[in-house]
Amino acid sequence: MRSDELVDCHVLVIGSGGAGVRAAIEADQYGDTVLVSKTIVGKGGCTPMAEGGYNAVLKELDSCEGHYEDTLRGGAYLNDPGLVRVLVDESPERMADLIRWGAVFDVDDLACVAQRPFGGQRFPRTCYAGDRTGHEMMTTLTERMADTGVETYQEVSIVSLLQHEGRASGAMGLDRDGEVILFRSDSTVIATGGGTRVYDISTNSSSGTGDGYALGYRAGAEVIDMEQIQFHPTGAVYPYDARGRLVTEAVRGEGGLLKNKLGERFMTCYDPERMELSTRDVVSRSIATEILEGRGTEHGGVYLDVTHLPASQVESRLPVMLEQFLKFGVDIRTEPMEVAPTAHHIMGGLRIRPDGSTTMKGLFACGEVSGGVHGANRLGGNALAETQVFGKRAGEAAGKAAVHSRDHDPAQVEAERKHLDEYFTGTSEPAGVWNKLKLSMWEGAGIFRTLPALEQTRSVILHLQSLQLRAVTAENLVECCTVRNMLTTASLIVESALLRPESRGAHVRKDISQAWTPETSPFGHTYLSTSCRGIEKVSR
Amino acid sequence: MKELTLRISRFDPKKDTAPHFENYTVNVHDGARVLHALHAVHDDCDPTLTYRYCCGTGQCGSCAVRVNGQPVLACMEEALEGITVEPLEIPVIKDLAVDLLPYINELPIICPVSTEAATMPAKDIVETMKPLRSCIGCMACVSVCPALSVSDFKGPTSMRQEMRLSLDPRDKKDRTAEAVNGGLFRCTSCQACWKVCPKEIQIPGKAIEKLREVAHFKGHTLPRHAEVAALIRETGRSVTWTEPSLLELTAEVMEPYGPVKKTVGFFVGCMYNLRLPKTALDAVEVLRRNGFRVVIPRDQICCGSPLIRTGQTEYVDTLKARNIAAFTALGIDTVVTMCAGCGSTLKHDYETPFKVIDFSELLAETGFGSPAHLGLNVTYHDPCHLARGQGVTEQPRTILRSLADITEMPSICCGSGGGVRSGFPDEAAALGQRRGDEIKKTGAEMVVTCCPFCEFHIAGHTDKPVRHLATLLLKGYREQEKSGT
Ligand SMILES: Cc1cc2nc3c(=O)[nH]c(=O)nc-3n(C[C@H](O)[C@H](O)[C@H](O)COP(=O)(O)OP(=O)(O)OC[C@H]3O[C@@H](n4cnc5c(N)ncnc54)[C@H](O)[C@@H]3O)c2cc1C
Ligand code: SF4
Ligand code: SF4
Ligand code: FES
Fold this sequence. Notes:
The structure holds 2 protein chains of 2 kinds. By secondary structure, chain A is an alpha/beta fold. Chain A contains 15 helices and 19 strands.
């Protein structure tokens, strides 16, 4: 057996997005904390890309009760109410942490944090730093973490969770060169973010490959509501190779108008009351319908127009959008953008309790990799709040957890290593497999779903899983592991979709008609683990 | 889909002793970015190609590379046929991936963490901090900074962060002292950093000069810089008299030979007035030969650049007022500069009621009499404050091409600016030496430039003659006359 680099710690945090770094900062108060990340801290994950904002109740006129109700209504009442309560109650305090740590949010004339309206919310409660809110948070958190004892391993990818005596006991990682590092810990926090890169068109960063769902599921933890995928209504459609790139909801928050190729504000037909600021699931389906029915634009989208707004407002509130579109040859001050739905967020994920603990002993989860907070549709601005609220909670609970003998199971490590070695004799290029997967997911598990289409995608995934992925060199092992994780995440999405016999929030089954509203639905969470699967029934 | 060929620098320190280039042909869609071309190379040609990316949307700073020598974000730059892709000029991990962490880890952080009630700074402070806050840590600026490459200067983005922290009431540390220790006065104000910054953060003007200003008022000014400031206050000039000045050698109005095409004001600047008056005379002569009536106000003084670049700003408003008055009193609507530094200062630090234009810019714009080709092989040194400060790179070359053959060298700072030549002679010499080496590589017989500081400094680091463009152009005219055509 080759000797591996061993790293022991009290808390191991996997992922350096908003949730992971927040968890590490907290955990560090209780013992040695190690943070491992596939990417450079502050650069990877979706947090630095988040543009729109962070929801927090800060004003007298607003109320946590209002935020709670908006979140449940937006989530089609599939949310775990206990988690939502924690989210809305603690979000303002976590915002205050960021401010204490130096975050530069936009302020009003009285130096109070400025807030803008976001879809599905009765009060303008979305705090922002221009349209680089997540980047601002990430910069603040990274600086704060640099001032703690947290030890970081950057550009190291976790490929499996370690287990010892029935509990999570750390993780196995590969560095840039493909060398194994074993991290052994008393508690492990997964904060690997989302995974919509399993779809052909996605907003996610390079690490949005669903590693955490797959790692947790394979280790025996339970995932819930994995069928609930948010398709953001406004993704860019040009240039083709950069399709899916997010056009932030802040564009509509600032007053952007949606129009079809005939120049009609088509939202009047779908949600005349909330119009452009309806919830994301509704706006996405409306745009998809306009395009399907032939009222789309040249590049296969609809128009999103801010040309009626003063140029100065576009420049100061939407600088990143302005800059990105200019680079692609469109001046949004004078020309409309072209947009279409794009896979954005996974609402489901590892089942957690309010302290971030999963169904597996010693394993915690926070951020997008966890499920239950957003139900069947996430409100814009709630995910950044979630990273902070549950990042802190998971870090704290993991930190407070008891110290165990830090040991690993050599048989497990040997089996994992054997699995890695098999990639060297594989025959299928990971890139080709990923390509087939993402097209099939978009086809069969996209905005509108039917039983035959889901089954078709399931069979494609099964076929792809039967192929042996190929690593040319040790450096390519991570790519194989990532595609394997994508296949697992995709199958969790499809299996869960097949488990939910209703349309609910972002999950739309075109072939099912139902007699209930989300509030009166007889169904609760779908759940999946290596030992059980099903859908919860609710007695109303 | 379209086919695209690109050349990529490959380097695996485990196997290779030096980087080498490989050519690849890939298929990408219309409008594809460099990143997509790299994906295509990785997926379809060679899975061992290493490059870094995360967001794909210009927000994370992972993907900066050099395309045809220029630092850019791979995810934002359009992939064009025949491009060359290389890593940034900082230590390479493999292929296009460079080691960013040493620079990221050095960035100063806010402290101490407040335990008090969370309060945001006032709106005006927030608005000043915001542009400095948008740094995505791509390290493009670091990769081009001449000061950092030869000294222990912490670098442009570190100075940006010092400035952002110094503005923030939540930060309690003395950032000025920290910045001074980090090499605040080592920046040559070459402007290279912000010209390559994907977020266009104006580090030299909005961070370094501002920090130097605070440092000055806190008593951190270098003795040599203080001497210059004292001289300016005393004499109106940043250098001492050693020979008759241009102002002494000319009349206030110098008429053109032949009809008046246009009347222009002439801003001579301290160096050309006092140290290189003959070069200035050449420029005046060239202008007269091209039909310009050249008005040289007697009351003009130092533009203030040596004060602004070193943070000693208290006297600058006086200089500005006097210079503007000197030209407006004579009804001048266009002022010509021949010193890159003065030109950039008048254009950016002044609000002038008249148009300011560089000598080469004016001639390229209005057209110039054709000189004799001198049969020389020359190289052209882009002065920082002309090329990056004023965006003037093509005009001097247009003129030069009519006089000589040009062998190009990379456009980098010679080390004389920002008060570095006087403040840190060792650093200036190290950069000057590099310039000398580049000049040697070109095999040129002569170096041409448009800035007295560059001219002076480079002359100390090459055995080739260094001339202002005006001098060479005048020579071309004289040759033309001699040959009698
Ligand atoms: C373009 C875009 C804009 C958005 N805008 C908003 C918004 O305005 N408001 C809002 O509330 N939400 C927004 N969201 C959603 C929100 O940004 C994310 O849900 C949230 O940031 C997720 O944070 P996280 O910490 O859970 O994960 P991430 O920030 O995605 O971080 C995941 C981390 O895990 C690491 N990782 C992944 N796999 C591994 C592995 N195998 N081994 C080691 N490390 C690993 C990654 O490198 C990364 O560091 C947006 C999302 C996107 C994509
Ligand atoms: S202006 Fe030039 S020397 Fe100064 S920080 Fe920028 S790149 Fe470096
Ligand atoms: S200042 Fe600009 S160039 Fe330098 S690291 Fe930041 S974003 Fe990159
Ligand atoms: S990949 Fe993030 S800036 Fe290019």
